[in-house]
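User: For my dataset I need records formatted as: sequence, then structure tokens, nothing else. Please produce one.
Assistant:
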Amino acid sequence: MDFNISEELTSVKGLAQQILNDFTAVDQLKAVDQQDQRFDPALWQALAEAGLLGLDIEETFGGTDLGYYALTVLCEEVGRTVAPAPVVPVLVGAAGTIRRYASIKQKEAWLKGIAEGSLQISAALEEYANDDPTQPTASAAKTEGGYALSGTKICVSQATTARRILLSARNGDELVVALIDPRAAGIELTPQVVTSGETLHELAMNSVQVPDEDIIAVGAKALEAMQWAQQATRTALCAMMVGLADKMMRTTGSYTTEREQFGRPIATFQAVSHRVADCYIDVECLSLVTEQAVSLIDQSRPAEEAVLIAKIWCGDTAHRVSQASQHCHGGTGVDRDYPLHRYCMHARQIELSLGNSAQLNAQLGSRIAREYLAASQA
């Protein structure tokens, strides 16, 4: 059995690296960091012109239809360069869910523009006391011709520029997935500066009217859509962490071979070499479990357990590799003119997004216990 990725995916990886490297020099990233929203329109358009924004969009709607696996390849390279490109909320959380669960008319309305880079739709999957979009506290009341949504979502990317934001709310026992206009009456956006240094937004809704044409799914289909969105987004964050952690590890390896102490490179010290070797093991393990989850999602197979394992590894790897990289760099690691700090902050942000390792460990343990109990009673 051949475990190498296909020639198409190799091409996607190479093209993504070429474009992202052109837009992520240290000075360019510093300039973007000063903006209210960490986003580079020129980079986004370059990705669109190369066909990379449409990797998981059907050809009928302007994409290349290479699938979810190819999209995570792009996510990994965005992580490796800490590029200011919102690929996860826009291409995975929003476009990926629309592709699989929206009507043909809704796909025609939104997917072509996303693939072309002419518009964005973001996704809001988290609330203050809950990061599970299948169990939102936000409410949806049926009205004539649509729904009225109330509640609060947090850490919403591209909230001020997106044409719509995909989110879930509950109408009694029934789940509703909607595309909400962030400029609609009853919407209040409050900036939130998060761990990564980005400015995201709290989105507060007060009886916001959403027409039927912007309702993606209701009931069982809505639950399936949010389960997919949660699993796909978590796994895409893991793929991004593979790139981030790999770059931190290699930056540390390079630095320790050049930095000398007591007349020789510190990489020759056993404690340092062991620390970097541990980083390598973490990155390789994260890559393996992430690829398992990606493959299952790409094949539309059950992936809940694989996704939980990958996100647990993601959080642990983010913490351990960031810490080891900082320690091996010494004071240089916290210098804001040196690139490492940017990787560490983004790693911490991903570690805490859509469930931290402790929380997900508890969920995985409960799942295993239920399965064991069911098997013992059979």
